Amino acid sequence: MKSLYVCIVFFITHLSFSQDTAEYIEDSNPIESNVEVIGNNGYSFVTLDTGINTKFSEFGSGFFMNKFIMVSAKKLGGLAKTDKTTDEGYRNLFCVDINKDGTLDNPILFSRLINTLDNEDQVTFLPDGQTMYFTRSTEEGSAIYKLYKTTLEKNSKGNWLEQQLLDINVEGYSIENPFVNPNGDKLYFSSNKPGGFGGYDLYVARIRPDGTLYDAVNLGDQINTAEDDKYPSISKDGKQIYFSSKGHANIGGFDIFTSRIRRSGYSQPVNLGSTINTQYDEVAFFLASRSRGYLSSDKSLGKGRYDIYKFNMEVVAQQLKGVIVDSETKIPLPNAKITLFNDEGQPVAVVNSDDEARYNFEILPFENYTITATKDGFEENKISFIADNVNQTEYNENLELVAEKAVIADVEEKKMIVVNNIYFDYNRATIKDESQISLNSIAVVLREHPEMKIQINAHTDNRGNNAYNLRLSKLRAASAMNYLISKGVDKNRLLSNGYGETQPLFDCKSKCTEEQHQANRRVEFVIME
Length: 529
Known about the structure:
Elements: H1 32-38, E1 43-49, E2 58-64, E3 67-72, E4 82-83, E5 88-89, E6 92-98, E7 104-109, E8 120-125, E9 131-138, E10 141-152, E11 160-165, E12 175-180, E13 186-191, E14 201-207, E15 213-218, E16 229-234, E17 240-245, E18 255-262, E19 265-266, E20 270-271, E21 282-287, E22 292-297, E23 307-315, E24 318-326, E25 337-341, E26 347-352, E27 358-363, E28 368-374, E29 381-386, E30 394-396, E31 399-401, E32 407-411, E33 414-418, H2 433-448, E34 453-459, H3 466-486, E35 494-498, H4 514-520, E36 522-528
Parallel strand pairs: 24-30, 24-31, 34-35
Antiparallel strand pairs: 1-23, 2-3, 3-6, 4-5, 6-7, 8-9, 9-10, 10-11, 12-13, 13-14, 14-15, 16-17, 17-18, 18-19, 18-20, 21-22, 22-23, 24-27, 25-26, 25-28, 28-29, 32-33, 34-36
């Protein structure tokens, strides 16, 4: 029953809108140079006719109570007036059924209280559906629109009351394309009022508890251009703004762009690419879900001046991958922590480099990222990155980490050379490549202190056979010693010994955590007096 509120039931006028089977729409004459430069821009759209279009202009205007709201310039009745500005009928609002396949049918006049003999254009609603904002042309001219607010009478079937002209209107100038954000606290719109950057600009106003508007501000030169910028809409998560612009880098006419809404403003707008934009106008972009929605266009092969199309959208999969290596030896560094941050410094994803020191992130096109890499025993490194190659879906960025120098320190009443732990192959005494970096730093300290002698003590955790662990630890200590000798350290300055599981840092017996086991598995470099 709620959906009956959408359209006034005592003026249910079914119109002869086209109900043709949906067909694939592809523009036949793109501007090749711009198409090639912009490409798909990281997006893939499939665009189909909705079956609702006529020889007149139809525009989408969002959703209300499971219906799609449409603006149509179809003439109603033999006495219908012609708008001399457009040479079509004056525009009226309709509500339309949405079929399971996304096609539209059963257009019904929205409300006799809202539709008049003037133009009614796009509308938007607060989340509770009880307040509507709509635009209507003025006596000054059929192309000049004012913004109104109206409320739905409780328990009524489309009885919109108290049509209020809002005080953000400016005499002689137009306010168009209103859109309320998902939180219901902001209203976006376009206007050609003075003080903008040229033509129509996009603005946002705050919404008071009573539905009136205040503090309307221009979205700034990151969004607005010297050309017309119109038709704002917001993604369902409130993080993206979509709009149509004749400025920015476009293919022709109005192209649809997107920009991420940040705390500090807006990201650089991105053209949604050649699979949706053409040399003609693409406007009134509305998402029904994350990947489906509607837009309007006057491109060729359509039925009328402007037609409504449905679309499926996919973000073309893009990957950022690379290898983490030691800056000096270029040895790969497994188990490094790599964090991907967006341009506001918020972490987007975290991974550890695999056994071959590789990492991989899925990324979005034209986003600015910062990548940081950290690992015990190494200094942090970070780089900036943007996925801005329209012909590329895979990017490679290797990061180099600088090993921290070995330090001499007192540890539990022992003087030691402290480095990152030494790692060996599983159940073997073979030193992992990454641990050669730590042993190299030990060799540097010994060269700097030619009088120094050290004892290399290896320890295991308490898992496994005691005798086996003791033997393994002795072999590992000897392996570390032999590596240092291979780097030019005199063997007479080195001793090695293994203690198995007899000297744990954490005496947790059978209740050890994995972190405690890892701490107990260690190699110490003790300075002999």
